[in-house]
């Protein structure tokens, strides 16, 4: 499972569990909290009304139903009301008020339904007559949760003794709509918070994955070049990723590690490849030297002496080009302070290779003007010199090597036999060579590697194709 998917899964799991419990607690607490507030207000109301009813109960007027308290309560029940309460319209007064005497028998009921009934067994009446706080919740319709009614009682004192109980009752359905709205708001707010948290989680995950991938790409780019690995040798290392926090510390630690270790693999690969390439000329020089120690005819001695010189020159070319390639592979990009014309670079390269071409009986030509760009003139000239030298090696006597300029591209065309198709993709690898027209394999395999590296340092690319006859190598430079 990828890092991003794991982070998202862990985040959503933690966020979902937290949201579930938080929403559950909020929603579960709304209903009891509203009812607690309602009960608190009913307690105050019951005690105020108990004080107002005490005189009429002491005088026995409540039983007759003809008392100032009874008349006021009846008027309250019939009052019209139209109140807008936080977006809801209240158009009825919902208090039911009844009074019981010291025996628990109802002597007054604002709804005239229970007068004369014995309420002495109800919890609120029993507790209040004992001097305790009395309240109960009951249903008008058994089994119907929406028909619940809250009853809160207060004692009626006459001469400092409890002479009766006044009870205020209110249906819970009158506040249910407030509860429903509050639960809806909490639920919607929770879902919005969950969505925002999810968006933040996705953003954080993407940011983390993006920076981790930058570190991964950087780690892949800083590995040292290996023999035969054209892509690695030609691709410059990325800059150290600028990421914050611990990831930034990791990037800097990787850069320090790269600085310490990159030379180890680089030298190891070069030593292996160089050892392989040196075996042939060294063996030839040793063999010729051993023969020269013997008494040989003058003609044979001249042949073996010429072989020593030839192989020494081959070693010199190998060392020189290896040093050039080594310096190029240690660089990350080309440097240029002013626009450089491809025509000038090509003209300079032709001047450097003219003597060798003449010695081999090969004609050099230059066509086109080419463009100018922010390139490094010495590197482009070096690449063209290696291309032209390579073309001269493969061109038969009396043929032509053409250098053609067009825009930001320069092509070198020879008239040789070309290369096998399987070898086209490997041209540019370090120490990879193909047989010369005369059957020899005298090249160092570093010329096209240098060309490939120069183009890569400029951010361009090299294209190679057989033209039958000849081979055409085109260097494309960015504008």
TrEMBL record:
Gene3D superfamilies, alphabetized: 1.10.287.130, Histidine kinase-like ATPase, C-terminal domain
Keywords noted in UniProt: Cell membrane, Kinase, Membrane, Phosphoprotein, Transferase, Transmembrane, Transmembrane helix
Claim: Cytoplasm is one of the keywords in the record: no
InterPro entries reported in the protein's UniProt record: HATPase_C_sf (IPR036890), HATPase_dom (IPR003594), His_kinase_dom (IPR005467), HisK_dim/P_dom (IPR003661), HisK_dim/P_sf (IPR036097), Sensor-like_sf (IPR029151), Sig_transdc_His_kin-like_C (IPR004358), TCS_sensor_his_kinase (IPR050428)
Compartments in which it is found: Cell membrane
Enzyme Commission number, as recorded: 2.7.13.3
Taxonomic superkingdom: Bacteria
GO cellular component terms, semicolon-separated: plasma membrane
Catalytic reactions on record: ATP + protein L-histidine = ADP + protein N-phospho-L-histidine
Segments traversing the membrane: 6-27, 186-210
Membrane topology (UniProt): Multi-pass membrane protein
GO molecular function: phosphorelay sensor kinase activity
Pfam families registered for this protein in UniProt: HATPase_c, HisKA
Histidine kinase domain sequence ranges: 273-479
Listed PANTHER family: HISTIDINE KINASE (PTHR45436:SF10), SENSOR HISTIDINE KINASE YKOH (PTHR45436)
Protein name per Swiss-Prot or TrEMBL: histidine kinase
């Amino acid at each position: 499972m990828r890092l991003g998917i794991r982070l998202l899964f862990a985040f959503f799991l933690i966020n979902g569990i937290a949201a579930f419990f938080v929403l559950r607690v909020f929603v579960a607490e709304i209903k009891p909290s509203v009812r607690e507030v309602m009960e608190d207000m009913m307690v105050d109301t019951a005690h105020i009304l108990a004080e107002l009813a005490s005189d009429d109960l002491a005088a026995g007027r409540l039983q007759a139903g003809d008392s100032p308290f009874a008349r006021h309560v009846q008027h309250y029940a019939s009052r019209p009301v139209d109140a807008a309460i936080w977006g809801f319209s209240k158009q009825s007064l919902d208090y039911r008020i009844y009074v019981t005497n010291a025996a628990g028998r109802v002597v007054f009921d604002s709804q005239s339904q229970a007068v004369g009934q014995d309420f002495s067994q109800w919890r609120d009446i029993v507790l209040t007559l004992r001097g305790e706080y009395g309240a109960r919740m009951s249903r008008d319709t058994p089994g119907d949760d929406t028909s619940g009614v809250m009853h809160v009682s207060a004692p009626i004192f006459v001469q400092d003794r409890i002479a009766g109980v006044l009870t205020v009752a209110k249906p819970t359905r009158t506040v249910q709509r407030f509860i429903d709205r509050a639960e809806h708001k909490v639920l919607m707010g929770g879902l919005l918070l969950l969505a925002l948290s999810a968006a933040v989680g996705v953003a954080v995950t993407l940011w983390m994955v993006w920076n981790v991938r930058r570190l991964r790409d950087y780690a892949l780019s800083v590995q040292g070049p290996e023999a035969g690995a054209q892509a690695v040798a030609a691709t410059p290392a990325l800059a150290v990723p600028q990421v914050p926090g611990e990831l930034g510390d990791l990037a800097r630690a990787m850069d320090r590690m790269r600085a310490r270790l990159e030379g180890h693999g680089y030298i190891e690969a070069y030593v292996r490849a160089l050892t392989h390439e040196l075996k042939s000329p060294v063996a030839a020089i040793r063999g010729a030297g051993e023969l020269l120690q013997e008494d040989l005819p003058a003609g044979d001695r001249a042949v073996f002496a010429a072989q020593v010189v030839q192989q020494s020159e081959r070693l010199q070319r190998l060392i020189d080009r290896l040093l050039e390639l080594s310096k190029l592979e240690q660089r990350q990009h080309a440097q240029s302070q002013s626009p450089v014309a491809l025509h000038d670079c090509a003209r300079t390269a032709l001047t450097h290779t003219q003597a060798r071409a003449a010695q081999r009986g090969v004609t050099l030509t230059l066509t086109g003007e080419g463009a100018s760009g922010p390139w490094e003139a010495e590197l482009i000239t070096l690449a063209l010199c290696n291309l032209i030298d390579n073309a001269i090696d493969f061109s038969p006597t009396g043929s032509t090597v053409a250098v053609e300029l067009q825009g930001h591209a320069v092509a070198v065309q020879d008239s040789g036999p070309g290369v096998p198709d399987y070898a086209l993709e490997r041209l540019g690898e370090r120490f990879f060579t193909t047989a010369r027209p005369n059957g020899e394999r005298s090249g160092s395999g570093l010329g096209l590697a240098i060309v490939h590296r120069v183009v890569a340092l400029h951010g361009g690319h090299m294209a190679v194709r057989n033209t039958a006859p000849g081979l055409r190598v085109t260097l494309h430079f960015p504008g």
